[in-house]
Specification:
Number of domains: 1
Structural class: alpha/beta
CATH architecture: Alpha-Beta Barrel
CATH class: Alpha Beta
Mean pLDDT: 98
Oligomer: single chain
Helix content: 40-55%
Distance between the termini: 6 Å
Strand order of the largest sheet: 2-3-4-5-6-8-10-11
Number of strands: 14
Order of helices and strands: EEHHHEHHEHHEHHEEHHHHEEHEHEEEHE
Radius of gyration: 21 Å
CATH superfamily: Glycosidases
Amino acid sequence: MAIIKFPDGMKWGAATASYQIEGATSEDGRGPSIWDTFSKTAGKVVNGDNGDVACDSYHRYEEDIEIMKDLGITTYRFSVAWPRILPEGTGEVNQAGLDFYHRFVDKLIEIGIEPMCTLYHWDLPQALQNKGGWGNRETIDAFVSYAELMFKQFEGKIKYWITFNEPWCASFLSNYLGAHAPGFKDLQLATNVAHHLLVAHGKTVKKYRELNNEGGQIGYAPNVEWNEPFSNKQEDIDACRRANGWFIEWFMDPVFKGEYPSFMTEWFKEKEGVTVPILAGDMELIAQPIDFLGINYYTGSVSKHTDEGLLHHEQVNQGYQKTDIGWNVFPEGFYKVLVYIKDMYGNIPIYITENGSCYNDEPVNGQVKDKGRITYLRQHLTALRRAMDSGVNIKGYMTWSLLDNFEWAEGYSMRFGIVFVNYRTLERTKKDSFYWYKQTVKNNFIEI
């Protein structure tokens, strides 16, 4: 049995998102978001589920923070619901919403947990969507104003800020594939949205620097996958480069290099007639230096060329173990994508802002024996240590998720938490994976 030890000072944490856990969607002045609208549109979410109650963390946050205290984590990544702060997206501030997050953050700090705040985890105010949402450049300035308000309100309390969670999902998954809110299927619109998100990110970073938040750090959290070529044929290599590039280079080259990847933009233009709507000054804004990069990783595959689909790429089923949501367990991809990012963009500090797995184990005699999740975490933490030993500048790890929650288009049918939530009674039950992760956090090592 080998011991895989992590460096002293490693930040251990867990992550959640506002719409997935808070509930209270129409309480205390909160306005509707695009996810309120999308989830209540017939056929969009499994079983017609919505986030009206979710885990009821808006009312039960103190209980949830006690769970975090028992877990022993030092960092908690959460997101703020924009429409809870600005119900119309702009204009009048909802003080009750601000007060809630102040109470929440104060409680975290009181017990020694560092808050890491995501400003946008997909719950765009519906009032802004009614004006074109992220397809409308006016939303960029609305977001920067919202971010500025948060920076000023929580100066000295929140020192780690994430502008956007998974911009690929907020753009292409939501506006081209139509799987998430607002549910459009328009590649040019999705490309416009992706660009506007990046401009909003850059303008927000610039604003944060202007406010001179001493000791604070700011970054963003793209999601990545890893596609390993099926063979050394150039067509397989190229197909995987495009599949990876859609997640990695598309959203990282502009930030770190000040330009879009030509191999991707040329492909989109040639195959679909789609172009990026770049205005003068956009790329300089996007390329504002950031303090850290958040990485969300879940899955990957061996893949090869096909003549079908947007990217002429397809995954090859090699008998992978799969989680209950159907995603491949591919820890090798975690290692490879982290090393690839380092080789591409240098020694940027990285936080793993999401990594976890879906296993739908139910309580039996008060115990949730989720062995699959423990195995997944052990494999991926081993891959993470490999990446660190290979020179990747990892500063911390946040597992997804603290709680079972509203899993977007899957509703409540898929469970990612290390704590089981009974959605009828809202009772929380710590799973075996909770206790395994608690021991990992305490020891700062794992056994394999």
